[in-house]
Amino acid sequence: MFGLFKGNKRLPDDVQRRVEGLSSQAVRALARNDADGRQQAYRHCLEALELLPEPPGQWSQAAQLFAVLGDVYWQSGDFETASNAYIDAISCRDALGDAALHLRLGRAHYELGDSDRAADELCRAYLASAHAGRGLAIFEGEDPKYFEFLKTRMQAPHGGW
């Protein structure tokens, strides 16, 4: 990623295990889709991020933690803060081009009324998914409005959608 994070440093095994455990707990808590779950997910993510040496973006684990934080805000309807968390996630090591992150960021921009940025991120999500051989699968389970919007801003690929 443009040489910002050089080397292949590894977290110490005990820190890695703790970060992975907190991340899993955060995902499980968030899946409850209630205020208590969001609070727990938030706390788990912050605790895990504090374990990462500075800057956190040099560690690939930070991308998932920032994405979960974005999801916490998304579920709360705070699309601006969700967008900022997704931007933090995409800025982490090896995260640029992650279809799911670009989809999340595109949805947030769409909800904020920023149609140009929404189109850009949704297009990135689709192209990354297509490149991975998954195509439209990235939009499965999503509100159809995001894909319908994308179709107004992007030409259909050769062979159609």
Automatic annotation (TrEMBL):
Cited InterPro entries: TPR-like_helical_dom_sf (IPR011990)
Name under which the protein is recorded: TPR repeat
One Pfam family, short name: TPR_16
Organism name: Lysobacter capsici AZ78
